[in-house]
Amino acid sequence: MISLDRITALAHHTVRLVICKGDRVVDATAGNGYDTIMLAEEVGPEGRVYAFEIQKEALCKVAESLKQQKLDQRVTLIHSGHEYLLENIKEQVSVVMYNLGYLPGGDRQVTTTYDTTIESFKQALTLLKPGGIITIVLYPGHKPGADEKNNLLPLCRQLDSSKYVVLYNRLLNQDNDPPELLVVQKKLFYTELSS
Fold this sequence. Notes:
alpha/beta; Rossmann fold; seven-stranded mixed beta sheet; 6 helices
């Protein structure tokens, strides 16, 4: 059973609905590695996780955690911003996860920003295979997080509804701008219209 007020747990539950053993998936913001580890467990030994992180120290900690859990052979760690997805991934993926904001326990001045997140999101859409999903945990309680939310929501509203389904989860009865979850799924079947 999951608690609906834990948005990150809801994101994990959501991606587990679509991941199959052997899939290729992305953790666009590795941070402390919780999403990376979950993804590595879900894809199995034949799968591949691409995990991006701009902070070298955080990436080293993720590498150590993966090694301790014997999951390191399933993960490609990439010391880079998530706006470079297409430079590092050359195959379709079933899941792309974002947990935006700053690294818990880290420097709060180092945070994701709307410009790189928007660029990354656009690239993720091109990598996503039919039926695949993108989850984005938003943190609107601080200025960069509010900027990301205010730029991502209009972009998601404009996505072609014949190709994508967009779900937006908010905790309506909570104070202090709690985290929110965006889920985008590329439809399994859609018709390309030619002019």
